Amino acid sequence: MDIDNDLKREVAELINWETTLLDRREWDDWIELFAEDAVYWVPSWADEEQTVSDPETQLNLMYFRNRGGIEDRVFRIESRDSYASLPLDRTVHIVSNILVSGVEGDEVSATANCLVHSFGKHGGQTRASLYDFKFRNTGSGLKILLKKITLIDDKLEGPVDIYHL
Amino acid sequence: MDGSFQKSGLGSLVDDRVDEGVFRVDRSVYTDQGIFEAEIERIFEKGWVYLCHESQVPEANCYFATDVGRHPVVVVRQKDDSLAAFINVCSHRGALLTPKKQGKAATLTCRFHGWSYSCDGRCVRIKNEKEGFGEDGFDRSQYDLNPIAKLANYRGFVFGSLVEEVEPIEKYLGAAATWIDLMVEQSPEGLEVVPGNSTYVIRGNWKMQLENSVDGYHVSTVHRVFASTVRNREERESLQGLKQTEGGRLVGIVPSGAYDLGNGHMSIWAQHTTPERRPIFKKKEWLEENLPAAHVEWILEKGRNLALFPNVMLMDNPSTQIRYVKPISADRAEVTVYCIAPVGEDAEARAARLRKFEDFYLTAGMATSDDMAALEDTMAGSWASHAQWNDFNRGISTMTHGPDEGAKAVGFDPVSSSESWENETLFFGFYRRWRDMMSASD
Questions:
Q1: Which pTM was predicted?
Q2: How far apart are CA A137 and CA B310, in angstroms?
Q3: Which residue of B45, B288, B339, B412 lies most exposed, with the fewest beta carbons within 10 A?
Q4: Do B366 and A73 touch (CB under 8 A)?
Q5: Closest listed residue to residue A90, CA positions, set A156, A157, A164
């Protein structure tokens, strides 16, 4: 498929911006990147080789059917009342392999890889994820419609929150 | 790490003077690697432990791999639908037999030298047998897999023991059996483990995970933020019915209780102020038609956590969970969580059950993550040998010996009952069982 270079650039910019806002803890700006009906999905692993495939009927690590799910997470972080979120782990996201995989009407799909290094009271750790994005082209820019994070690590040490993903 | 328990004796680690108002446990039980190794030998390898749920081996030749102490063990569904369990190790050179945690295979074939075993554990093929062992008189059966000594299926929950000398499963479960019944009898078609699971590492002692699961006292501090988060969500999104969270237990004083169920088993409950928000509430009429009223009340209105000594917890609270703990070292354990649900549950209730599970119960959730952080801080503090004692005295003067009215209503007989889930009297039974098994002579 011939995908417009401006669109490719816009998608890459948005994905890089999204993870940058997480690392910089600009929570409100981060939430604004998502459409109100955006789905945020972190599947669990059904076995060693496959994640679950149907988030409605199977167990996920996170599955938010709308943007309210990430708003809950930010509410909890900002409350300073969450044991696991005080002190907050420091994170750096390194995103690569950004590819726009399809355009259908006003929807744009893209994939990327991400390494997240985090540091907390038990030291540093690095986890890796596959990203699957969908965006809605609103005319005045892209909004995130889906962020699916396939966290390839299992036997997770320590909490996993939105800023680790 | 210094093995000091061997010098001072295990009895001194549990300061059991309930008549004097004292029950304390030496914090070296969490930190001492010598104690840990003794626990593996004397508790995990000398008594009943939880293995799996029967729905994880749904048909013949299905297997589920787990561990009993240091022994890899595999549970295999037989052709006649019964269950068998073997040391999951090739008789030849000791390689693990199952390629995956869970699967289905007509034979268990070692991937190292190709020896094969049927699902009943018989060694059925040795690669190039004649060339290596001769034509005549070779008895392959000497290489059959080692079955574990005891295997029992209590209403779908499968337990095993490496040694013969254990009490019958019903006696081991004792009063805790009723708590399993209260989960199982909700579904005429049985329970099933829902696809998907999560394993997380706790940087803490395995006993801390058992303690946390039946510690009602932390809820109104550690989970205060969970309550405020879901309350904020419900106002923001005007949620109704099953999409709301049963928050009463998290914030306020609701009726609650704690039981020392005997044999190290423990349980707590708290009243649901809004039972209509629970997935099971949709089956209220069926429950009322088919179960005694007291059981229906316990099922619908009392959120329940059960810790079975030594390695599994069964929760029926915001959602329903099997939480399995595998000890790794004194200061490390692996926890695997599964959602268990009624077979044939309607789609709305199932989705609500899963979303409530994800909300609360995972290391990526909004409550278990906080539990883990608290637990890991407790581990960090336990190394301070100059602050020696863990205090479990809360409720010591008000507990009831034997059953309270709630226990009598559904017919279980605990060692003691406490009228608040904030009380810590249930831990007496856990640490008495621990002490007795650790002190038993061989």
A1: 0.96
A2: 54
A3: B288
A4: yes
A5: A164
